[in-house]
Write a structure and sequence with these properties.
The protein is an alpha/beta fold. 37% of the residues lie in helices and 20% in strands. Strands 12, 14, 15, 16, 17, 18, 19, 20 and 21 form a 9-stranded mixed beta sheet that branches. Strands 5-6-9-8-7-10 form a 6-stranded antiparallel β-barrel.
């Protein structure tokens, strides 16, 4: 049986002349190197042009088509930085419309923010698609006869059968220094009521993680200002440290204290809020602004009311922004709050796209979802500028179950975890860090020499105290050694309590740790501990100011310096 000829349809308001018809047929013959059957259909909306459709190819010579072609040329200039204005002028001056075939798909079905599109065989995964109504979407599924697309805008504007156009670009994020101090959505659009942000560049939200050769060891502290963490579970620049715990146990508070503590340390902070209430994000921004932290912080918000696709891409968008600063040689701290809501959003998208559910209905690639995000945190080699990006992912547990699916996935990806215990939190111990379940796999490499010497055996003392505390609940007859250990443990627990937004500088932590090792707080009543600590720090800073400045500037302290600090603290406590 003879093969059927390729079919083409010409749409225009008036029927073309014989000469025009012959030119069309000759063009199609050259284009497809075969005979093409051409037919004409009247379309009164095309009074100033025509549209030629042949299979999935569309040659749009209408004013709208030519304008779309020009806009794509201008869009390709994104990322030109300060040279973009002269490049736009040159493009507009030299531009002439071309008879380019544009692959156009058709909407087959739309529901719940998911669009199924037919007729786009050459589209690639992650590409941005443009719909007739101006709505944007991203390719997430590549099936045999259709593609699945997630929408970034309202699906009510899309109708079945409407045209879908390729953009030729992967999903990306505008980046630049002007984003500091702003609140933006997952697409980089400001949502804080301020003026438009002038971007310096454009980065894809999905990027390969730096290779081993491009990294250097994690050996510089990223101080949180929280003595519990800096002394026992230190975080280094380029590390990934998980903050995990039940709802309302202070996970976000730990992250915010860390951001506030970066003031004056030349660290760019990015806070990604996923699936949170808008009112909570507004309050968080106000608190950061009150403590002077918004000057160096960017808040990326995909609230609970945002579509699931925006919640899905939010952490990747924040990471792309962080990589811009990291590759320019700066240090970055990025907080993902939280990845359990991110996994839920991804599960919703996957089920709507028809992907097979696995454990707890999550898709099979949910591990890869977070692995490819967190692996992008790194301390770059000096050849790449030496910048770093430290990631603090947050995960919510149910009834303290760290063995659930998503928590175990992220624990295996990260370099340690800070586990916040609800029992400790409600007993008044804040931050409520569980000493037994928390760990930093970088350890002392991320501590300064002064902090390492001052920490001593505090973690071992606290671990012994926790075990003795449980054991002695069933016994009232205690020997003197056990009683001393219990008293010392209670004193350490009281000392490690910190108010939110009151981080300790490094030299103050060294002073308090030295005093704790010398057991100078043994006889201080709990109600007097806060005032005692405040007065002690003021006294030692006044009498040993040179050593305090040395520790802050260099992180070093020799044995004589530590002894002088210890003696000054002991003299004050005697008085």
């Amino acid at each position: 049986m003879a093969a059927l000829n390729r079919q083409a349809v010409l749409y225009s308001a008036q029927k073309p002349s014989d000469t025009q018809w012959q030119r069309m047929e000759a063009f199609l013959q050259r284009r497809y190197d075969e005979a093409v059957t051409l037919s004409w259909t009247q379309d009164m909306s095309l009074k100033n042009g025509f549209r030629l459709e042949c299979g999935d190819d569309i040659f749009d010579w209408s004013p709208e088509g030519r304008f779309r072609q020009l806009s794509q040329n201008l869009t390709s200039l994104t990322g030109a930085g300060p040279d973009i204005i002269p490049l736009m002028r040159e493009t507009l001056h030299n531009w002439t419309p071309k008879a380019m075939a544009q692959t156009v798909g058709r909407v087959r079905a739309v529901q719940d923010g998911i669009v199924r599109v037919s007729g786009m065989a050459d589209v690639f995964y992650g590409e941005i698609l443009l719909f007739e109504s101006g709505v944007r979407g991203m390719v997430m599924n590549l099936d045999e006869d259709e593609i699945g697309c997630i929408l970034f805008d309202d699906d009510a504007l899309i109708q079945q059968g409407s045209a879908v156009y390729r953009s030729g670009r992967v999903a990306g994020m505008p980046v630049g220094n002007a984003f500091k101090g702003r609140v933006i959505d997952a697409l980089g659009t400001p949502i804080d009521g301020g003026e438009a942000i002038e971007a310096d560049d454009y980065r894809p939200i999905e990027q390969p993680a730096p290779g081993i050769i491009d990294r250097q060891p994690v050996n510089t502290p990223m101080e949180t200002g929280l003595m519990t963490i800096d002394a026992m579970f230190p975080i280094g620049r380029g590390q990934r440290e998980l903050i995990i715990g039940d709802r309302q146990t202070g996970k976000t508070a730990v992250a915010l204290d860390t951001i506030v503590n970066q003031k004056g340390k030349n660290v760019v902070c990015i806070y990604v809020a996923i699936g949170q209430k808008t009112s909570s994000v507004s309050q968080l921004v106000e608190n950061l602004r009150k403590h002077g932290a918004m000057d160096y912080t960017v808040v990326v918000s995909a609230s609970a009311s945002a579509p699931a696709p925006l919640q899905y891409i939010a952490p990747y968008a924040g990471c792309a922004l962080g990589e811009y600063f990291m590759y320019s040689g700066q240090d970055v701290l990025i907080v993902y709050d939280d990845l359990s809501k991110h996994a839920v959003a991804y599960r919703a998208l996957s089920l709507l796209l028809g992907r097979s559910p696995g454990r707890e209905a999550y898709p099979g690639d949910v591990f890869y979802l977070h692995a490819r995000l967190l692996e992008r945190a790194a301390h770059l080699s000096d050849a790449l500028g030496g910048g770093s990006m430290t990631a603090l992912p947050i995960v919510e547990t149910q009834a303290g179950d760290v063995s659930a699916y998503i928590p175990t996935n992220i624990i295996s990806i990260t370099d340690g975890q800070i586990f916040l215990d609800s029992d400790l939190f409600f007993s008044g111990q804040r931050p409520a860090v569980n000493i037994g379940l928390s760990v930093s796999r970088v350890g002392g490499d991320a501590q300064t020499k002064a902090m390492k010497k001052a920490t001593g055996s505090i973690r071992l003392d606290l671990a012994q105290y926790r075990e003795l505390e449980v054991f002695t609940q069933f016994s009232s007859d205690l020997d003197e050694t056990t009683r001393m250990q219990l008293t010392n443990g209670q004193m350490l627990m009281r000392l490690l309590r910190q108010k939110q937004y009151h981080p300790y500088p490094q030299h103050q932590q060294v002073i308090l740790l030295l005093a704790a090792q010398a057991r100078l707080f043994q006889h201080i009543a709990p109600k007097d501990m806060e005032a005692c600590v405040r007065n002690l720090l003021a006294h030692v800073e006044q009498t040993q100011g040179v050593i305090c400045r040395k520790i802050e500037q260099t992180g070093l302290a020799d044995a004589e310096d530590l002894e002088n600090l210890r003696s000054a603290a002991a003299a004050f406590m005697k008085g």
